[in-house]
Amino acid sequence: MVSEYDFWLLDLDGTLVDVEWSYTRGVFDRVGDRLGHEFSDREAEIIWNGLTGSRDYQLREWGIDPGAFWDAFHAEEDPLVRAEQTYLHDDAAFVADLDEPVGLVTHCQEFLCEPVLDELDIHDWFDAKLCCTEQTGWKPDPAPVEYVMNELGVGYNGHQGVLAGDGACDVGAAWNAGIDAIHVERIGHERRGRCVLGDYRVQSFDELEFPQ
């Protein structure tokens, strides 16, 4: 049973929401055209979901300059189209019912994140949010998590919190910030190629039992 936490932090993409595969495939086709690299479905899945950890490291392993990739990637992403093709996982609805402070810590860039939150009408789920940048740091760096904790007023003052996410970087960020981690496995261990540990490991948030 999940303990009664004082606050909740959540990742966005792959945790609360996902995007239709046709959108992802189209983006990687156009990015590939820009870079002269034909991305396979598996390569697109690996980068989109961060399956092997650091996306930049993986890109370098494939001989692709990360800076050039991300410039092309962000140029090819259409915020409104992405928002229209993004869907909310049914089991994510529990967030709307949380009485505790709730924060969002996501690698999704702000120009993409805001239209998604608007389209799905979930802005009011969050009391604070941070779209990570080079300046804020990236999970598993604890800095983005600590920033949102401070925005929520929970800091390191005896509050017990948890971060839920779909990636190893989310678990790492939680533990590095001294809070618990829930790993929600949306993809499956076989497709991911490894098992991600966490204080709680679920395939759906429906598996969590909340105190009454």
Question: Could you explain the architecture of this structure?
Answer:
With 212 residues, the chain is an alpha/beta fold. The protein has 9 helices and 8 strands. It has helices at residues 21-35, 41-49, 55-61, 66-76, 79-84, 110-120, 143-152, 168-176, 189-192; strands at 7-10, 17-19, 86-88, 102-106, 128-131, 161-165, 180-184, 200-202. The strands form 2 sheets. Strands 5-4-1-6-7-8 form a 6-stranded parallel sheet, with helices on one face. A two-stranded antiparallel ribbon has the order 2-3. β7 (180-184), α9 (189-192) and β8 form a beta-alpha-beta unit. α1 crosses α4. The radius of gyration is 17 Å and the shape is globular. The mean pLDDT is 92.
**Helix percentage range:** 25-40%
Return Rg in Å: 17 Å
H/E element order: EEHHHHHEEHEHEHEHE
Q: Structural class, from helix and strand content?
A: alpha/beta
Question: Helix and strand layout, with pairings?
Answer:
Layout: E1 7-10, E2 17-19, H1 21-35, H2 41-49, H3 55-61, H4 66-76, H5 79-84, E3 86-88, E4 102-106, H6 110-120, E5 128-131, H7 143-152, E6 161-165, H8 168-176, E7 180-184, H9 189-192, E8 200-202
